[in-house]
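Supplementary Methods. Inverse-folding protocol.

Structures were first reduced to a discrete structure-token string of length 815. This string, shown here, constituted the complete conditioning input.
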């Protein structure tokens, strides 16, 4: 009896046992995929994680359909890491498997495929079975994998589908496909016959068309200079000729055409940058990092904006590549990769690979395989959080830039992991070092650095010793009172914009929100009602005419006058980027104004296009949300305006003050040039607010101390770990009852704070009502035990018949 233990790409916490023949048993390795039947007539791509001889006790092991890989595509570091993620973030191992793999790797019966529009495949290149599917897709726009089984009249169809994917005949449904780059590239070479010099001479004499001769001369030139295959494209471009002329030469048998497989993403192998020259301050920081790595697994590089952290990372990467190690470089935002890739390829040529969700399936699989094979092309992998799941086996260094960014935490679906924290665990398993970088570290990370768990290296000056921008505060209350406002713009800001523009400089305006913010604000004094026990703003619920706390459930009726100044002028307030853009167009009608937020940057390259045209100075004023706050480097921006600091400050979240400090400091960091000090104007009702003052004086330390104290008092990270349980059901009463039951059992069985059950501001999504419960696990106590208790209680919750239909999701280290 021979068995394999597999993971299924389903939200199941268990592994499953299948039976295999002895021959299969000897052939299969851990980390290969097998197609297996599961449930009624469904087939899934399972991953083998073990081989053994123990039959399952609860069910009879089914046979597998097919072995899909000869060699492992997943390594043991990954499987161990997935298991850690499943256990730490309290989710099913199947969720981790599904989330970790590019979707083309895990076809299932329900997967929908459609034909790849741009494909140029020769039908003769298809096998009979491939052709059947190809033909079916000419009739129907899409097929389920299950339909394909019917067409081919067999179950083992995954290999055929994989081949068609590979040949670009098919595309998976969820795939975003813009700017497709062909995999096969057309090359030409001179016909053998003309390697003989005499024949070549007579050929050149015989050629009548001057243009054809010219193309041929260009071909020889390219060959002499570059000594590598010449693509049709390359020749067309250098000879400035047309495809027709090249075709004529091919038709005359002077050129032969052939195809080479190209990686879809290829960077120029020319390294253009001269030797990296660190400044004295940077060199010092670099040596300190090396020294810190001697004793610490993780170090934090706390360097102010424009201190040149990227240059230091680059130097470190050089060291690790020299040792033959792999390097992973995580960024908070896909959109940032373009700038970084161009900086890194200057140093490392085509040893840089990029991996993120906007890449097509084929592109992602290519990078996956390169990492698996430890290819030279993927010595450095740059990516957003999912790059963490690539099959690294030889990691030397992990860099996490802008480590404070909340986008490192995956919200939905499970696994709800934090890429920074998961990367630290991954690095530890491979004995790699981790460098976290930020100008505004998260409270959690700085706490770890202060307590000695992480190393700490600081840079307090900008590269080239440029001064930090000067911050000017505009008191909105006073400006409105003195009628020195036009719309949302103070005269001070309008004048500063006009001045910058007339000097040919560019302006960035930051407005945190896209839409409408539901807080109640006093027009007279700017006061926003706060929760009495949570230190967060109360959220205005129009429907119930209530103000509510989203953390403890505290609520009051909507006040009729301001608690602070008794004014009756209170409104639900908030304004978005769109409105700012409109007002600007009236104030500066001749200027080019563009908006950058989630609405304007949806397409694959739309963000890059905006950034490029801003860099090229085609845009005068860029209005944007927090996207602007992330590590972009512009050389002609001298003014940054923050439209309203208060909307950030009074966001109902315990991290609101920390986030406000980070965002304002980061956007401010975009102002200033090497030769000119930048200016930042912050409009606010709260000029004396501690956070505003701390931003103005670039006082990270005070911000940190103050926030840390609040976190301790109000039981938040880093002193407590948050586990948030979200319950959903269509039936309001059932949900209310069920969440109360769960809350009571949790608080009776856990000797730690359990809060709730709370009804969130948006208390119904897609017809389901929502309740949340928050568990706070003390950092200094055991972590595993409370989690086990929570899991056990959840199991018994599911066993209660009337609650079984209530969906519960868990979010560990809730952000
Ligand atoms: P940070 O990431 O710390 O905000 P960057 O790495 O983006 O800063 O550096 C800011 C600017 O200074 C960039 O334009 C970068 O090219 C330049 N710079 C930093 N260090 C050096 C260096 N050692 N040599 C040349 N240019 C540098
Ligand atoms: Zn007031
Ligand atoms: Zn509260």
């Amino acid at each position: 009896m021979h068995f394999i233990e597999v993971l299924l790409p389903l939200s199941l916490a268990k592994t499953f046992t299948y039976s295999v023949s002895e021959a299969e048993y000897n052939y299969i390795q851990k980390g290969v995929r097998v197609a297996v039947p599961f449930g009624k007539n469904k087939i899934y791509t399972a991953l083998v994680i073990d081989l053994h001889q123990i039959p399952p006790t609860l069910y009879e092991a089914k046979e597998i359909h097919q072995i899909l890989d000869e060699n492992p595509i997943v390594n043991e570091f990954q499987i161990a890491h997935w298991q850690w993620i499943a256990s730490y973030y309290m989710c099913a191992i199947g969720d981790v498997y599904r989330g970790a793999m590019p979707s083309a790797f895990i076809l299932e019966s329900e997967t929908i495929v459609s034909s790849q529009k741009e494909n140029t495949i020769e039908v003769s290149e298809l096998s009979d079975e491939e052709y059947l599917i190809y033909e079916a897709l000419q009739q129907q726009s899409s097929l389920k994998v299950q339909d394909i089984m019917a067409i081919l009249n067999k179950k083992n169809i995954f290999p055929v589908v994989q081949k068609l994917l590979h040949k670009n005949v098919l595309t998976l449904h969820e795939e975003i496909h813009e700017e497709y780059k062909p995999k096969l590239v057309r090359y030409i070479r001179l016909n053998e016959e003309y390697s003989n010099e005499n024949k070549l001479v007579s050929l050149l004499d015989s050629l009548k068309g001057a243009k054809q001769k010219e193309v041929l001369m260009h071909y020889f030139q390219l060959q002499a200079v570059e000594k590598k295959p010449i693509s049709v494209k390359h020749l067309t471009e250098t000879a400035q000729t047309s495809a027709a002329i090249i075709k004529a030469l091919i038709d005359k048998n002077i050129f032969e055409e052939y195809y080479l497989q190209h990686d879809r993403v290829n960077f120029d192998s020319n390294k253009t940058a001269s030797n990296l020259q660190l400044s004295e301050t940077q060199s010092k920081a670099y040596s300190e990092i090396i020294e810190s790595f001697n004793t610490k697994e993780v170090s934090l590089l706390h360097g102010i904006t424009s201190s040149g952290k990227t240059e230091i990372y680059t130097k470190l990467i050089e060291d690790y590549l020299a040792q033959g190690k792999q390097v992973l470089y995580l960024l908070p935002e896909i959109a940032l990769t373009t700038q970084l890739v161009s900086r890194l390829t200057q140093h490392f040529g085509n040893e840089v690979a990029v991996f993120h969700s906007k890449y097509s399936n084929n592109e992602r699989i290519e990078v996956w395989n390169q990492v698996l094979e430890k290819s030279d092309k993927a010595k450095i992998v740059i990516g957003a959080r999912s790059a963490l799941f690539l099959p690294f086996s030889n990691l030397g260094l992990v860099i996490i830039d802008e480590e404070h960014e909340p986008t490192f935490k995956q919200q939905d679906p499970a696994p709800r992991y934090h890429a920074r924290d998961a990367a630290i665990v991954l690095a530890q398993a491979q004995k790699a070092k981790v460098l976290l970088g930020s100008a505004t570290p998260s409270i959690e990370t700085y706490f770890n650095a202060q307590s000695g768990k992480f190393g700490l290296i600081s840079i307090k000056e900008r590269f080239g010793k440029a001064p930090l921008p000067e911050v000017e505060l505009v008191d909105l209350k006073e400006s409105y009172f003195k009628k020195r406002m036009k719309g949302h713009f103070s005269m001070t800001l309008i004048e500063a914009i006009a001045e910058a523009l007339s000097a040919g400089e560019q302006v960035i305006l930051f407005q945190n929100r896209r839409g409408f913010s539901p807080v109640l604000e006093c027009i007279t004094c700017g006061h926003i009602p706060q929760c009495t026990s949570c230190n967060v703003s109360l959220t205005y619920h129009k429907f119930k005419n209530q103000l509510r706390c989203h953390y403890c459930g505290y609520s009051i009726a909507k006040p009729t006058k301001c608690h602070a100044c008794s004014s009756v002028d209170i409104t639900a307030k908030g304004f978005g980027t769109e409105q700012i853009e409109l007002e600007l167009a009236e104030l500066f009608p001749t200027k080019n104004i563009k908006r950058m937020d989630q609405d304007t940057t949806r397409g694959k390259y739309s963000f890059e296009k905006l950034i490029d045209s801003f860099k090229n100075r085609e845009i005068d004023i860029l209005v944007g949300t927090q996207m602007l706050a992330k590590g972009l480097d512009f050389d002609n921006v001298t003014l940054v305006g923050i439209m309203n600091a208060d909307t950030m400050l009074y966001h109902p979240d315990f991290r609101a003050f920390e986030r406000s400090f980070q965002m304002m400091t980061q956007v401010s960091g975009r102002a200033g040039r090497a030769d000119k000090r930048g200016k930042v104007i912050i409009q606010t009702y709260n000029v004396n607010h501690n956070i505003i003052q701390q931003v103005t004086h670039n006082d990270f330390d005070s911000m940190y101390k103050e926030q840390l104290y609040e976190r301790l008092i109000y039981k938040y990270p880093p002193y407590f770990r948050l586990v948030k349980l979200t319950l959903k059901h269509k039936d309001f009463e059932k949900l209310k009852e069920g969440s109360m039951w769960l809350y009571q059992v949790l608080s009776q069985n856990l000797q730690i704070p359990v809060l709730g059950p709370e009804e969130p501001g948006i208390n119904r999504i897609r017809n389901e009502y929502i309740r949340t419960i928050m568990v706070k696990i003390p950092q200094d106590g055991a972590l595993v035990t409370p989690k086990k208790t929570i899991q056990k209680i959840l199991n018994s919750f599911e066993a209660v018949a009337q609650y079984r239909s209530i969906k519960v999701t868990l979010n560990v280290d809730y952000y």
